[in-house]
Amino acid sequence: MKKSITALLIWMVLFSVTSCNNKTIKGIRNTSYSENEKSIGGLNLPFKMPDVQIPVFKADTLNIEDFGAVPNSQELCTEAINEAIKKCSESGGGVVVIPSGLWTTGPIKMKSNVNLHTKNGAYISFTGDLSQYKLIHSYFEGNKVIRCESPITGVDLENIAITGQGIFDGNGSKWRPVKIGKMTDEQWKTLVNSGGVLSKDRKIWYPSEGALIGNEEKDKLPKTPTVENMEPYKQALRPVMVSFVNCKKLLLDGVTFQNSPAWNVNPLLCEHVTLSNLTIRNPWYSQNGDGLDIESCRIGTVTNCRFDVGDDAICIKSGKDKEGRERAKPTELFVITDCVVYHAHGGFVIGSEMSGGVRNIFVKNLTFNGTDCGLRFKSVRGRGGVVENIWMEDIRMNNIPTDAINFNLYYFGKAIAEDPHTGEMTVEKMPVSEETPAFKNMYFKNIYVNGAKQALKIMGIPEMPVQNIQFKNMIIRSEVGIQMNYVRKIDFENIDLRLDKPGIAASLSNSQNVTIESFKSTGESQAFWVGGATTKEISLKMKGYKMTFEKDIKVLESIKDQVKIMD
């Protein structure tokens, strides 16, 4: 990883010397960004992508101390920071500097043409006084909602940035509930003794009585919510920490965002987004503690970022259910490279709120270490939306507690049932409609996994199988092998599967047009199991070994003619 990052930095330096089309952003660490139609960071992309437009700022600089901000005290700097940003924007833009020191503030409101630049040693702590955060019309989990305003907000802006080496702390412990199962006994005891209140079953801790009421008594929430009638439940209406809505030319570079009330960084309906050199972290027990949620955005890059969070790390979304489909704004044309994920529920994730669609995403050179699930794709009937044209290559994983790669189209829905006599996985087929989610045209190349519970699990739906997926050049060490149900046109090439426990290397049920060649496995008690009434056109070939049905393949007799052993 260090070598690849060093190579990227060397390339950037060389490119800054040789290219006349570069744009350099003032106030950040000598980082240069190229703008080529099908090349981002020296990568040749498999789709045509417009130039990512980078914000450029005037050299004019304002210091928040000149507006009355006082460091290293409990005095709120909200007015000083926002006044500096406002004046900078009204004067044609420039840089607003937050110097080294501890700064306590309420919500920060960004303005167009402003680079909020943090010096090394700047620690911006958002107040735990929730009265400072007004209820507003906002968005969360793909829908319009009433929620507290975010610690950092930008709406309908252009040419904006947050840069430098500072730390933004969302003071999430003042907002978030905590489940008993996510802590050790000693941690739980310390948390309960710190104050707050417990749920009736004493399994969830809330930071306040208001937070408990808003979460535990949802049946009392107004049917038609307004800012006024939601006020009694305000303390439960946790905001995302960094919210940019309908913005163009957005840059976040170098800073740390941590300890968010809910999701951490959430660009929504934005264009030309550049996220680089960020550290995004939340406690591993944080409820809804996502790292980065890119939602209904187009044209952007995520480069050289670090994640250690309580929920999904790098997550691609596009709205939820009917509202998301009517919004009809897919997340598209993004390049995500050179990132590291530590704790997270999923390393790179698409869904589950993907009703507006996701397409033309290129992911390369990611490392997942101890992440619950590596590559995670999730949805459910009712979402609708099409996920297509997704490329993932050069992915490394280490110590993955669940699945290295997972497709789950039953997320919070009715799961597939298994026939105890045949092992066949079946589910009722539904009519295809606008509510039917689809995942197709996805490409996985050079995937290396050193330890996972399961190598690959695909749980599709019968009316819209997961389809046209290619897996090439994978070496995976795991306890359990490959399991697929309701898939179509899946190709495997050059797969090396190393099982830590005896079992079936690959199980296929209700699968069509599946080709597995140059396949090698060790530690298995059986190579393949094939079942499912709708299964057809299965072609199998082991690398350097001639298989037989009697020894290597268990297949239901009714579909045996659909399974071919290739020479």
Automatic annotation (TrEMBL):
<feature type="signal peptide">
    <location>
        <begin position="1"/>
        <end position="22"/>
    </location>
</feature>
<keyword id="KW-0326">Glycosidase</keyword>
<dbReference type="Pfam" id="PF00295">
    <property type="entry name" value="Glyco_hydro_28"/>
</dbReference>
<dbReference type="InterPro" id="IPR006626">
    <property type="entry name" value="PbH1"/>
</dbReference>
<comment type="similarity">
    <text>Belongs to the glycosyl hydrolase 28 family.</text>
</comment>
<keyword id="KW-0378">Hydrolase</keyword>
<dbReference type="InterPro" id="IPR000743">
    <property type="entry name" value="Glyco_hydro_28"/>
</dbReference>
<dbReference type="InterPro" id="IPR051801">
    <property type="entry name" value="GH28_Enzymes"/>
</dbReference>
<dbReference type="InterPro" id="IPR011050">
    <property type="entry name" value="Pectin_lyase_fold/virulence"/>
</dbReference>
<keyword id="KW-0732">Signal</keyword>
<dbReference type="GO" id="GO:0005975">
    <property type="term" value="P:carbohydrate metabolic process"/>
</dbReference>
<protein>
    <submittedName>
        <fullName>Glycoside hydrolase family 28 protein</fullName>
    </submittedName>
</protein>
<dbReference type="InterPro" id="IPR012334">
    <property type="entry name" value="Pectin_lyas_fold"/>
</dbReference>
<dbReference type="GO" id="GO:0004650">
    <property type="term" value="F:polygalacturonase activity"/>
</dbReference>
